[in-house]
Specification:
mainly alpha, 0% strand, globular
Length: 45
C-alpha cells in the first residue's frame, strides 16, 4: 500500500523535503512494520 508517511519514513518515493524523523536517524524495521500495519487499518487513532 502506497503511503506518503511510509515514504517519508523510509526515504523512498518522496515528493518534497527530507526523510523523517529529522535528525534522529531512521526507524527500526519493527517500528516501520507498526506504522505500515496502522496505515493498512485506515490509520485511525
Amino acid at each position: 500500500m502506497a503511503s506518503y508517511l511510509v515514504n517519508k519514513l523510509t526515504g523512498t518515493g518522496m515528493c518534497l523535503g527530507s526523510q523523517m524523523p529529522k535528525g534522529s536517524g531512521s526507524l527500526t524495521a519493527a517500528q516501520l512494520d507498526t506504522v505500515r500495519a496502522w496505515n493498512a487499518t485506515g490509520a485511525n487513532p
